[in-house]
Every structure is written in C-alpha cells, then in structure tokens.
Design brief:
This protein has one domain. α1 runs antiparallel to α2. Helix content is 82%, strand content 0%. It has 60 residues and is mostly helical. The two termini are 18 Å apart.
Length: 60
C-alpha cells in the first residue's frame, strides 16, 4: 500500500473516532456531526479511487 493510501485510511479512522465521540455527547453538535460525516465520505471516496487506480496499474 502506498503512503498516501495509508494516510487516507488513517484519516478515515480518525474521522470515524471523532464522529463517534461527538455522537456520544449529551448535547451533540449536529452541524459538527454533519461536517464529520461529509469529510469521512469524501475520504472514503478518495480511498476507493486510489485503490481502483492502483489495481488498474498493476501488471497482469
């Protein structure tokens, strides 16, 4: 796995942990939760694109 793809996986995990923390609060900030969900989805999409590109580049 290349370094950027590894970074994206770490960032996705970090966003997931932060999202979970915000959701467990007594008075969760819905705007922050929405922002985190969008950021997490963007990272997930980037991961999918990078993984698809790396599969296309592998020699047969």
């Amino acid at each position: 796995m290349n370094r950027f793809l590894a970074y994206l996986h770490r960032e996705h995990a970090r966003l997931d942990a932060e999202l979970t923390e915000h959701q467990r609060r007594l008075r969760p900030d819905e705007a922050e939760i929405s922002r985190l969900k969008k950021a997490k989805l963007l990272v997930k999409d980037q991961i999918a694109r990078w993984e698809a590109d790396s599969l296309e580049r592998e020699p047969a």
